[in-house]
Design a protein that fits this description.
Elements (H helix, E strand, L loop, with lengths): L1 H13 L20 E3 L9 H10 L3 E6 L4 E11 L10 E6 L4 E6 L10 E12 L3 E12 L4 E6 L3 H18 L1
Antiparallel strand pairs: 1-7, 2-3, 3-6, 4-5, 6-7, 7-8
Length: 175
């Protein structure tokens, strides 16, 4: 009797699994200034120019792939996170045993800068193709425990224009 009921229950639960209606999309979308035709830059932007421009801006180069024309870099900085207090400090529990009853109530409050310390990591990728150059950038904020607190795409107009000009300048110096 339990076996058919278990199969029906499993079949019902399997029907609850749903596929997403769309794949994840960058929010906000990258700015128009973050991709451009390669022929627009004189002299043309090179991979060496992109690496030099990123290093000049205090980025640490993490990976380059010359056959693909790709460079990935990141920089980090210490900052503060002023988020909502975490509810994991408060504890409320109860216990009931064979001999007696008991209730445990505890609480705590943390003070100081330790809870506010955070690290912001900014990652940039530059892809220099045969016909186009593309820049993508994201910024993530991690609290003092290493837990991700905020994440956003940051491929904005101002950053991409400044990086494009710096890459063009560095490519000009290299040639």
């Amino acid at each position: 009797m339990w076996r058919p009921l278990g199969i029906i229950l499993l079949a019902g639960l399997a029907g609850c699994q749903a596929l997403p209606s769309q794949l994840p999309v960058a929010e906000p979308p990258p700015a128009e200034a973050c991709h451009w035709p390669r022929g627009d830059d004189v002299p043309p932007i090179t991979l060496a120019g992109a690496v030099a421009a990123l290093e000049d801006d205090d980025f640490l180069i993490r990976h380059t792939e010359t056959t693909l024309g790709l460079v990935s870099a990141e920089r980090s900085r210490r900052t503060f996170f002023h988020g909502a207090p975490e509810p994991d400090i408060f504890l409320l529990g109860a216990s009931r045993g064979a001999v007696g009853h008991g209730v445990l109530i505890g609480g705590g409050v943390g003070f100081g800068l330790l809870d506010d310390e955070a690290t912001e990591i900014e990652r940039v990728s530059v892809a220099i193709g045969e016909r186009t150059v593309r820049v993508s950038r994201d910024i993530r904020l991690f609290d003092w425990r290493g837990e991700l607190r905020r994440s956003r795409t940051a491929s904005d107009d101002g950053f991409c224009r400044e990086l494009r000009e710096a890459m063009r300048r560095r490519s000009e110096e290299a040639s």
